[in-house]
Amino acid sequence: MPESSYIPWIIKYRPKSLSDYINQEEAKTILLNWLKAWDKGSPAKKAVLLYGPPGVGKTSLVEAISKEMNCEVIETNASDFRRREDIEKRIKPAATKMSLSGKKRLILIDEVDGLSGTADKGGIETMLELTSITKHPIIMTANNPFHPDLKPLRDASLLIELKKLNQRDVVKLLKGICEKEKIFCEDEALKIIHTKNEGDLRASINDLQNLGLSFGKVTASLVNELIYYRDREVNPFDTLRNIFTSKYAWQSKLAVSHSQVDIDTLIEWLSENIPVQLTEPEDMYLAFQALSRADIYRGRMKRTQNYDLLSYISEMVGPAISLSRKKTKFKWIKYEFPKKIRMMSETKKARESLNKAAAKIAKVTHCSRETVKSEYIPMLRALYKVNKTLATQIMEGLKLEEDEIKVIVGKSKESTENTEPSSTGPMKAEESLRKFETSTKKMGTRARKKRSL
Known about the structure:
Number of domains: 4
Mean pLDDT: 82
CATH superfamily of the largest domain: P-loop containing nucleotide triphosphate hydrolases
Order of helices and strands: HHEHEHEHEHEHEHHEHHHHHHHHHHHHH
CATH topology of the largest domain: Rossmann fold
Largest sheet: 5 strands, parallel
């Protein structure tokens, strides 16, 4: 067998220019215009976030454009460089220094959705800083860019979507490969390969190569016998569309089980978009009834730790909502990102500051953080409105940081900065703190007696 046979066809037939790159005309135009804007100076957004389902050709598009524009590509994978120090050591020098060859440079960062805001220390923050100081275009790729942790990167980047490839374009490309490799193929077999891979071109080419090299032909009977449907995760937008368009229970169950988002997040997505998709009042009522039951089961599952209830939740958010569409005609609409998730992401820093403040107060008052949040922090907030000086003395005595005080008193950064700091000194602060401890202990004793009664 010739040596070229061992070359993976996804490498051998990778597009060498934009003319070889099939479909995605809108995405190509937007990306080209953005890169040309760099020739006139830095554009408004110095980074692009290229997103779409697996195997649609995100990396191949960047490589094809770089060859077209004679650019040097510096390619990295975000999954390999997760921490702040890794990014500053490997990616930052390439983005901030000029090329020795004098060529234009492109920074390609694959799979940024592999970064996690909690597990990867400072990775997203450093990537965000990089997009503001870079001297070269940065192109990031992601399968699912809508994770809450990635919101800062989405806001700082130009989002370009690569849509799932249609059957006609995939079959045409696969047929062209078979002709070049001198392998007999049936059109029906190529259509089945596309269907089983759900438009994933990379997986389709891999399946074609496996069959072609093994049997010397690609027929419908071989494909049906040897190629299996691929289990893949589906983004929340397609998940919702699949749920709302399902005619059978098994279809909507499949949509729920293959979703990229967990069941809690899916409930938020459905709550936000049911009124948008189901416009008939009766359909909307039935869908929200199913969703409310799912929420009841979810609460019961968390309280009792009985995870057998998860199957009932899946039934409610899948088949029950799908079958609630009786009168509404399906329309292709743009689904909205859940406001609650967006708000939670935006208020994350404030919630962290509140938790830190609650932990400090709990240590002094010898009670739980939940009790501090429900009883003591509201008391401090009310006291601040009546007597700012005393409230400030108490909070200083508790060793609360500036951001923690701002969260407790509910003031914005600007208004807090305009408030004169307490000039009472440490002695007054300690005296106020002792009074606070005494009063809170009395309050806690009264509350415990009341609960015992």
